[in-house]
Amino acid sequence: MTEFLACHVAQNRTAAETTRILHREVLPYWGSWTVGEVRKRDIIALLDRVRERGSLIMANRVLAAVRKFFNWCIGRGILEASPCAGISAPAREQARHRTLSDDELSNVLAAARTMGFPFGSIVEILAHTGQRRDEAGRMTWANVDVEGALWVIPGEHAKNGKPHAVHLSGAVLAILSRAPRHQKLILSTDGKRKFQGYSKAKARLDQFVGRQRLDTA
Fold this sequence. Notes:
This protein is mostly helical. It has 2 domains: 1-76; 102-215, Orthogonal Bundle (hpI Integrase, Chain A). It contains 9 helices and 3 strands. The chain has helices spanning 2-7, 15-30, 40-52, 56-75, 102-115, 119-129, 133-137, 170-177, 198-216; strands at 144-145, 150-153, 164-167. The protein has a 3-stranded antiparallel beta sheet with strand order 1-2-3, with no helix packed on it. Strand 1 (144-145) and strand 2 form a beta hairpin. The longest helix is centred in the N-terminal third of the chain and has 20 residues, at 56-75. InterPro entries: DNA_brk_join_enz (IPR011010), Integrase-like_cat_sf (IPR013762), Integrase_catalytic (IPR002104), Integrase_recombinase_N (IPR010998), Phage_int_M (IPR053876), Phage_Integrase (IPR050808). This is Tyr recombinase domain-containing protein.
């Protein structure tokens, strides 16, 4: 699994999450086993442990990570078949379709402006462009044409693997005008690494949104 993490996962956009899942949920139980020793019943037992603690969605993520690993083993000629074959996702996931009302969106944007750069700017750009968080986090000046009001997202940063262009409104250009121009990654604390700490920042944003609601009540 070490080679899998180093050669395959490290090149994937979800590398950090997959690595975390394998280290926390899988290796403590299978760390001393060879690949050929893992059976279908072992995977089911692994998923059951995750489900029994109430983490149904995480059980899905564990299965996805393990399936990636065994598919990689097949591709490398290490295994002939995957022990994951025939195992269904432990939980059904439903897409979230709810959208914010105009008032809710206004409160979120006001809170984001209060928080400022970089997280507040990320939230504002996501709201104005409808792009994904990871795509915004990888935004560089090399991919932004300020004069042409265009942001080109490279295929390797897009979920579908295809490059696409995003028109930038005046509001987004104003946000970018306040961002540092000397760093590679625009929406980054140091310009070198993507923004981290989304959970804590989101909690702060929720607090600001709550205050906005009280102020306008």
